[in-house]
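Re: duplicated header lines in exported structure tokens

Our pipeline writes sequence and tokens for each protein into one text file. With two proteins the header for the second block appears twice in some exports. Here is an export where it did not happen, for reference. First protein block:
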Amino acid sequence: MTETPSSGATRHRLPQSSSEEWVGIGELKQEVRELRRANERCGARGASSVGGSSFGSRRRRPSPVRSRRSHRRFGAVLGAGVIVIVVAATVNGLVGNSDSRPVPSNASLAGLSTRQRIVAIADSQVGYSTGPQHSYCNKFSAYWSSGTAGCPIGELSEKWCADFAAWVWQKAGVRLTYGYSPGQINARAASFYTWGLANGDWHWATSGYVAAPGDVAVYGLSLAADPSAAHVAIVTDDPRGQHGPDVVNGDGDRTGFSVVETGTDQTRADAGHNHDATLAGYVSPR
């Protein structure tokens, strides 16, 4: 997912075959001009013949061979035009989100702890939004090959707060397996809870545990036979005196639909129509 053009619309290089057809267009234009001049000359002679009462004179018809050649060239040029239109539509419609938000360089991350890298990488994505608007097409789910198709190249569609958190952890060097077997992390927010529980890294919010940068906060946890959760977010700080942590939300919808945004003192997640999105606890990276 990336390049924002410096000005105006994005320019795309055409295939070599299309460039050759543009030469054909120039040749066709020149031929049309020649035919037009020939017709004008023929028309002038016809007019003088009529003035001299030479009714037997006829206007010269274009050569059938030349006409067929012109039609063939016109067909080739028309086909080239269709190709150009299709290429332009494909490029404009299928290229991934230009707002790719690259991660910090290895040089800038060198020397940082895992938790510091998590925060730096999460912060680097703040402001990312899905495209098209009002869709869940995003690069984080595509990274895990998770979600449904019908998105621009390099993106897949699904609610992606957990995909984002897993992506940040993995980019920072946290060892995890993405999948749907027991003890693996996936697009379900509750998978962070089950992963933390299985590894001894789950902390209830009511236990007095003070969240550390790089933890994942879990919101709206329901402990049914198959646990579920409303949302997860990357913890960036947990200042003394606050009721909740400062976080980076993937797939947030407070400042916009399906965006990466920050949250301050976030004891409750903005999870749309989910009525129970209060802070349940934290998962620590290994």
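Second protein block, exported in the same file:
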Amino acid sequence: MRTRIKFCGLVRPEDVDAAVDLGVDAVGFVFYPKSPRALDAQQARTLRDRLPSFVRAVGLFVNAPTPDILSTVAAVGLDIVQLHGDEPPEMIDTLNEAAGRPVWRAIRVRSRDDLLSSIASSGRAECLLLDSFSEGFGGSGKTFDWSWIPARRSSRLILSGGLDEERVGQAIAQVRPFAVDVSSGIQGASPRQKDPRRMEAFVAEVLRADALLAAQSGKA
């Protein structure tokens, strides 16, 4: 299996186009007003319309009221809802039914016990996105101890937090996640700008890591 790739926090049309050209699987739009990468529904809709059908649009929300999430899903045409705050597990069921969209649950990892407890209480989330804990919400830009992750590959696991072109290969080799998620690791001169060279290097490193694992598996 290849490792899927999500680029998050995209704001500019040229960055969306570059992500599509590089073959990423999902693009994330941030609807958390306190984030430097925040968008409103109209801005996100303009970007979403640039995505072909095989690239999924993910909306990142932090403790937003359910009616606001549903409104944004409809206005933007989001494919996936990502909850990145302290939302209760039952909210996942509500959104699954009301929005008719998969829900991803972000876990802000403090410790191994905290991680295992959060996984156990994740309910009907389609995927779990693991990020390192920070006092604020949204991406932390820092790694956590990957040895805390249960030692099995899971179709529900998306690894985030501090990944860039230098770390993602090691992360794939050690964790073997279903997907990797990156935002600050491909950042350009400002939080609202991505660096095309870092975007390309990140994808190339994921492909290299997958090829190495495939070769090792073939020799086993």
